Amino acid sequence: MKELALKYGCNPNQKPSRIFMEEGELPVTVLNGRPGYINFMDALNSWQLVKELKEATGMPAAASFKHVSPAGAAVGLPLSEVERQIYFTGDQELSPIACAYARARGADRMSSYGDFAALSDICDKDTALLIKKEVSDGVIAPGYTEEALEILKSKRNGNYNVIQMDPDYVPAQLERKQVFGITFEQGRNEIKIDDSLFTNVVTKEKNLPEEAIRDLKIALITLKYTQSNSVAYAKNGQAIGVGAGQQSRVHCTRLAGGKADNWWLRQNPKVLNLPFKKDIRRADRDNTIDVYISEDYDDVLREGTWQLFFDEKPEVFTKEEKRAWLDQMSGVSLGSDAFFPFGDNIERAHKSGVAYIAQPGGSIRDDNVIETCDRYGITMVFNGVRLFHH
């Protein structure tokens, strides 16, 4: 098949809409549903991300995409008991690709609501059962077991979007797109994120363990498919905070850092033991956790709306308790898609436990950025590679 008609483009008024190949056949097959324009944009970007993650780490990988940027990305490391709790996986057996999906979907559950998922490996029953529980628009993978496909076909009244990607597809080296009737052309970004990018350590602290290099790879590959400007925090084999599409680099760092903080705060015993009503919907539970962690929760308690979600009134998670818990977060890796122009980015990153940084370097204030890292004992690598994505 050379082309596929779509319902409409980015918005309902944008018709006609289609995807097509100028040469050869489309490398995608729709197994269920009717994916739209944005679905395919998310699917094709997220597929590239997970394919590269697997190549770079040797592990199964998954991503959760919303509006052409990842909300989460991860490799298939086993889940700890706490991670099972915060990702709401239950006690079911989980294959490596299911673990990767749980991590990618669970890092920023609010942003992943209504996402498009990508899997580097064949989707199995374990993964399909996790996907079935979530509010999601679709999934792309190189294949599906019979059991997995039947589970996914039953989702959303039979309308869940299931796309199979040809894993052997190699795109043309030149890519084109049109803006305002004008055609842009450029070579594809084929830069490989590998060990060679982590040799130029520019700080006094030189320690860069294998786990940190793995997490820096995850952060940088995530950024390669994130709308720029962008910054990503990673830990334990997954992105834990992605700041996308900000005009200021420090705003990227703050946005992503806030998401990383939320990921860590959700692991606090006060949050793990919240007395939720048994019949609360998953989305309401996720949103309520974010509100509970936020500084606005005192107002919710005063207004008495806690009764909508909890069997009993939960204790306030005080500002001092949250700061004390956040001070325990350590060993976080941070990637940036372009250089840090000021040390304020490092100051903010330090508050979220960042110990390892990879960035291109090249700012006229590199000395200030390095000095700030040295003040906190942070290891920073200049990789010389910009990863803008638009």
What does this structure look like?
The chain has 390 residues and is α/β, with parallel strands linked by helices. The chain has three domains: 3-165, AICAR transformylase, duplication domain (Cytidine Deaminase, domain 2, 3-Layer(aba) Sandwich), CATH 3.40.140.20; 174-265 and 326-382, Cytidine Deaminase, domain 2; 269-316. The chain has 14 helices and 15 strands. It has helices spanning 37-57, 81-87, 96-106, 109-112, 125-133, 146-153, 210-224, 249-265, 269-272, 282-293, 297-303, 319-326, 344-351, 366-376, and strands spanning 3-6, 17-20, 28-32, 61-66, 69-75, 115-119, 136-141, 161-165, 174-179, 182-187, 230-235, 238-244, 332-336, 354-359, 379-382. It has a six-stranded mixed beta sheet, with helices on both faces. It has a five-stranded mixed beta sheet with strand order 12-11-13-14-15, with helices on both faces. Strand 9 and strand 10 form a beta hairpin. Helix 1 (37-57) packs antiparallel against helix 7 and helix 3 runs parallel beside helix 5 (125-133). The longest helix is centred in the N-terminal third of the chain and has 21 residues, at 37-57. The relative contact order is 0.11. The mean pLDDT is 95.
**What is the CATH domain class of the largest domain?**
Alpha Beta
Whole-angstrom Rg: 21 Å
- Structural shape: globular
Range of helix content = 25-40%
Low-confidence stretches: none
What's the structural domain tally?
Answer: 3
Integer average pLDDT: 95
CATH topology of the largest domain: Cytidine Deaminase, domain 2
Query: In which order are the strands of the major sheet placed?
Result: 3-8-7-6-4-5
Terminus-to-terminus distance: 28 Å
Strand content: 15-25%
Largest sheet: 6 strands, mixed
The assigned structural class equals alpha/beta
Q: How many strands appear in the DSSP assignment?
A: 15
Question: What is the CATH superfamily of the largest domain?
Answer: AICAR transformylase, duplication domain
**Number of DSSP helices?**
14
CATH architecture group name of the largest domain: 3-Layer(aba) Sandwich
The ordered string of helix (H) and strand (E) elements is EEEHEEHHHEHEHEEEHEEHHHHHEHEHE
